[in-house]
C-alpha cells in the first residue's frame, strides 16, 4: 500500500500480446510489442475496431478471466501482470453516467480506496486531496446525480486518483462532453500529471484536445501490431491522411464537406412566445422563455447551448413530441398538407397529431439510436414507418432497398439493429426516419461522441436532405457541425 | 493456446463482478417494472380484486420474473434468489406499498425458483426448466400469501389462488423470461455471459 | 418526470438535519418490522391485530415522519386492508349462521369475524413496514447489511451501485415512449406497447450494467484484498431499542390474544 504522496510512475511492457473476446473468432488485439517508460504521456490512436479500448482495459486489469476471453503473449504494468497490480493503473471511461458508482460525491471517490483496503482515517484525506486536484469544489455529501457530464468525468478521475495510481488510463474521457466540459477535464488531467508524475495513456478521436499534454503518439493497426509510433509531430505528419481516413480528427486534415445547393423554400413550422423546460404546465421549471423561430424548407436550424440548457426539450417540443410549457408551435398549411387537400382535418399543433400523422411531416432522430429500435432486423426496422403509413408492399420494398443502399446498410440488412457498430446504428436511426419522407428532420446531438468519418457521413446525409427541400432542426453543441450546415442558430 | 471457439456453456460457478452487477441491474430494472405495475394496475383492478375468488393471483407472475430472468442471464448459483430479493428490497426503497414485507416475499419467491435450478445442478437452462422455476416461484408466492394475507380463506379460494399463482408463474415468470433472454442474446447485450453465446460471431 | 424526481429523492435523501429516528441504523428498522410481522403472522384474530395497531399508532409521532408523507406512502395499505377483508368476508371459512350464499360466496358469522381480523392485520403488518422504510437511505442500508449483518460485500455493493441507475432507467423509459410516438407506432394502446418497451429497457440496462461493472473493477472492486469501509455502520443501544420495540409490540399483541382467549393459530 502506498501511503505517501509520491507514488512511482508505472511503465508498460507488451511482448507479442493479444486478446480475443470469448464469443468471437477475431483477435481484438494481436502481436503487440510496446514499451512505455514510467512518466511518458502517450496518445493512443487507431481506427475503430483496432483494439484501443481492449488494450486500456487489459492494462487496468479489468478484461476478466478465462470466461471472458483468451490472452496471448505477455503484458506488464510496473513489472507485474495487471491483474496482480490492481490500483497501480487507474482507468477513466467514456460514458460519464456509467462511471458514477455511489450516490454521494465523497462516497464515490472513497470507493476505490475502500476496495484497496486503505484504513478509514486515511481515506477521507485522500478523498479531499483528489477532489482538490481535479478542481471539483463541491460538498462531500453532494448528490452525484446532480453533477454535469464534465463534473462526473472529473469525479471519476478523482476516484481513480485517490487510489494513487502510477499509470493513468483514459478511454475517450471527453467524447460525450460539451466544449466547456472537455476543457475542464483536460485541464484537470494536466494538473494531476503535474502533481503525480504518473504515466498517461489516453485514447481520443479529437487529437487537438490532447496534443498539448502528450509527448508520444502510438497508432494501433486493425490487423495487429503497431501502425506508427513516435513524437506527435512526426506521427501526425507521416500518418495524418491515413489516420483521418480511419476517423481520427487530425489537425490539418478536416473531414470532407459536401457541396451545397442552398435554396430556401416555404415556411413549415412557426414557434411563438414558446417556453420550454422540465415539468408540466402546472408545475413548470422553465429553462427558456419567449422563443421565436421559423423553420423553412431547405434550411438548417441549429439549437445550440451547453448540456442541460434545454436544447433537447426545445427540439422535442418543435417535433411534436412534447407539449409547449407556454406559447405555441404552429404547423403551416404547407406542412399540414392542406394545399393538396388531403388532410383538411389536421390540427395546426403538432403535439395534437397522431403518431402516424407525424411520420410524413416531422421525423425525430434521438441522440441514443437504441431508444428508437423496435424490431429484430435492420430491414424490418426500416419497414416500420412505411407500414404504419399503410403504403403498398412494392412501395415499401422500393424505399427500403433504396435506403439500405444509399446509407450503406445492405450488408447488415439481416442483422439485429442492437448489434451494429456505432456508425451503423447512427445511419440506421436516420434511415428509419427518412423512410417515411418527412418534411422536417429533428435531430438530437446528431454528432455526439463520433469519430471524424461517421461525422462526415452524417453531415453529407443531412446536406442532401436539406438540398432536396427538407428542413433540418438539430440540437447540438458541436461547433464544426453548426459551421458545416446551419443556416440559422438559436442559442439557449 | 487453442483456436477452438468457445460455444460450450460455461460451468464456472463463481460469480464475476459483471455477473453481480448485471444481476443487480436486472433486479433494479425489474423493481422499476414492479413500481410501475403497482401504480398502473392497482388503480384499475383493486376494486375488483376482492370480488374474484382467488383469480387475482393471475397477475402474480409479474412479481416473479425478476428471479427467473436473472438466473437465466447470469447462470450462477443463487442468482434467482438474489435477483428476486434485490428487486423486492429496491421496490420497497422506491416506495412500494407493502414496505418491508415484500422483502420476505422476495426471499421466499426467489427460493421457490432457485430450488428448481439447483435440482438441475445449474447446468440446464432450457425452456422447460425456466417454466418449472416459474412454477416453483408461483407455489412459493401462493402459499406465503395465503398464510400472511388470507389465512381465513376457505379451501376453494385457497385452491384457486394457488393454481392461479402457478399458471401465472409458469407463463409470465417462466416462459416470458426465457423468451426475453433469447431476444437479449440476439441483441448482443449478453456477450459477456454464457447465456449470450449460443452462436459464435466473427 | 415527476416520477423520476420522486424516485431519486427517495433513493438518496439529503441528510441535512437528521431527526433522531432517521439516524437509526436501517437494519434495526428492518429488523423491527420483521420481528413484529413474524409475531402477527402466527395468528388471525382481531385482538392481536387491534392491539398491535393501537401500539403502532401510538408510536408513530416518535418516528419522525411528516403527516403528508405518512398518508401518501401508506395510502395503498389503507385501501388494501378493507379490500382484503372483503375478500375474506366473501370467501372466508364459513361457520355459524350463514347470511348470504351465491355461487362460491358465503357470508357467515365466521367469515365476518375473520374479515375484521384480516383487515386489522393487514394494517398492523403493513403500516410499520412502510413507515419504518420511509426514512431509510440506500447507502446506509447497504453499509448496515454488509458491516452489521456481514452479508457478502460484493453483492451488497453491486446492488447499491445498480440502484443508482434507477434515475437513468426512468429517463430511458421516457425516451422509449417518445421514440414510439416518433416512429409512428404510438397510436396503439399504451399497455400493448409495454412488453416491447420493457425489453428495450432491459437491453439498455444490461449494457449499462456491463459498463458499470468495468468501471467498478477499474476501482479495484472484487479484488482479493480485504475491503475497508469509509463509513462506519454502528449497531448501538438505539438500534437495540428499536429492534426490541418491534418485538415487544408483537409479543404484547400475542399475549393479549392468548389472555383473552382469541388466539387463533393460522394452521388448522
Features:
heterotrimer, B: 202 residues, mainly alpha, 66% helix, disordered N terminus, C: mainly alpha, 2 domains, 3% strand, ABC_thiamin-permease_prd (chain B), Energy-coupling factor transport system substrate-specific component (chain B), AAA+_ATPase (chain A)
Describe, in plain words, how this protein is organized in 3D.
Chain B: This is Energy-coupling factor transport system substrate-specific component. Chain B: It holds the Pfam family ABC_cobalt. The complex is a heterotrimer of chains A (492), B (202) and C (268). Chain A is α/β, with parallel strands linked by helices and 492 residues long. In chain A, 33% of the residues lie in helices and 23% in strands. Chain A folds into 2 domains: 12-245, P-loop containing nucleotide triphosphate hydrolases (Rossmann fold, 3-Layer(aba) Sandwich), CATH 3.40.50.300; 267-491, 3-Layer(aba) Sandwich (Rossmann fold). Chain A has helices at residues 52-59, 105-116, 120-133, 149-161, 179-196, 207-210, 232-245, 311-318, 333-336, 355-359, 378-388, 393-406, 422-434, 452-467, 479-485; strands at residues 12-21, 29-36, 41-45, 69-77, 89-92, 167-171, 199-203, 216-220, 226-230, 267-279, 284-296, 300-304, 326-331, 362-365, 440-444, 471-475, 488-491. In chain A, the strands form 4 sheets. In chain A, strands 5-6-7-3-8-9 form a 6-stranded mixed sheet, with helices on both faces. In chain A, a hairpin with a 5-residue loop joins strand 8 and strand 9 (226-230). The longest helix of chain A is centred in the middle third of the chain and has 18 residues, at 179-196. The radius of gyration of chain A is 25 Å and the shape is globular. With 202 residues, chain B is mostly helical. Chain B has one domain: Arp2/3 complex 21 kDa subunit ARPC3. Chain B is built from 6 helices and no strands. Chain B has helices spanning 17-49, 65-74, 79-94, 101-119, 127-148, 155-187. The radius of gyration of chain B is 17 Å and the shape is globular. With 268 residues, chain C is mainly alpha-helical. Chain C contains 10 helices and 2 strands; from the N terminus they run ααααββαααααα. Chain C has helices at residues 2-11, 26-41, 46-59, 67-91, 109-134, 138-147, 153-163, 166-182, 190-218, 237-259, and strands at 98-102, 105-108. Chain C has a two-stranded antiparallel sheet. In chain C, a hairpin with a 2-residue loop joins strand 1 (98-102) and strand 2 (105-108). The longest helix of chain C is centred in the C-terminal third of the chain and has 29 residues, at 190-218. Chain C is flat, with a radius of gyration of 23 Å. Mean pLDDT of chain C is 87; it is low at 1-17. The chains are: A alpha/beta (492), B mainly alpha (202), C mainly alpha (268). Chains in contact: A-B, A-C, B-C. Chains A and C meet through helix 2, helix 3, helix 4, helix 10 and helix 11 of A and helix 1, helix 8 and helix 9 of C.
